[in-house]
Every structure is written in C-alpha cells, then in structure tokens.
Design goal:
elongated; 6 helices; 3-stranded mixed beta sheet; binds zinc ion; about 20% strand; alpha+beta; two-stranded antiparallel ribbon
Length: about 130
C-alpha cells in the first residue's frame, strides 16, 4: 500500500518544518501516519505554510489520520500567523475527507466496524476483498 517514498519526499521538500527542536522531537521522529493518497493534500498545505513566512522555530509535530480525516499538529510557534496556519490546516482536513487516503482519487469518508476511513470505490472494494 505505502512504499514510504511520499513521506520522505514531503519531509525533504520542507526540511525546516521537520527539523528536531530544542524540545528534542520533530515530525521526522514521529512520522507521517496517513495513507499515501493524502500526500498531495499534505504537500499543498505545507506549500501554503511555507509561503507564510513563519518563525524559524515553527515545527510540525505530527501528521496523522483520525476518524477518516487528516490531522496536522504543530508546535504553536506561528508568530502572527495563527489564523493563516489554522486556515491552511482546516482546508487540508476538509480536502482529505473528499480524497481517497490510499490512492488520492476522489473519495468518501465512511465508517466500517467503528473505523473511519476515506476511500474511493475501487480501494474500498480492494480492501473488502483482502
Ligand atoms: Zn482509492
């Protein structure tokens, strides 16, 4: 399903967001816990964040899927850009619930056996065959 290349590529494209902080952790330690289908959504969000001119100590601390939605957590060092950062992340979360988390095609958020996932029809079918 994931060959891991997307997340390495994302981390390499935006190294400043992922460098270890003085608190001793960074996203590179925690990982990107989503399917590869959201790499485009995450990349767009990080491009927006990179354009804001955030303080040097701004870091992303976790990127993960929760209840079928993309969640992006940061360390709060947004300078004066609090609203812009929250807007960019909210847009990415909104986009994620319409994007298949496995392949990046248009998807639908659904609950199955108590697990929320966002999948397209063919990935859903593939996962129910497995
Ligand atoms: Zn799919």
């Amino acid at each position: 399903m994931s060959d891991g290349k997307g997340r390495v590529e994302l981390i390499e494209r935006f190294p400043g967001f992922f460098r270890a902080t003085e608190e001793g952790f960074g996203l590179s330690d925690l990982g990107i816990w989503t399917g590869p289908g959201w790499d485009g959504v995450i990349g767009q969000c990080l491009t927006t964040l990179a354009g804001l001119g955030l303080p040097d100590d701004f870091r992303l601390v976790q990127i993960k899927e929760k209840f079928g939605e993309l969640r992006i957590y940061h360390n709060g060092r947004t300078g004066e850009h609090d609203h812009a950062v929250e807007d960019a992340i909210a847009q990415a979360t909104e986009a994620s619930v319409h994007t298949c988390e496995r392949c990046g095609m248009a998807g639908i958020r659904m609950a199955e056996h108590g697990w929320w996932r966002t999948l397209c029809a063919s990935c859903l079918q593939r996962s129910s065959e497995a």
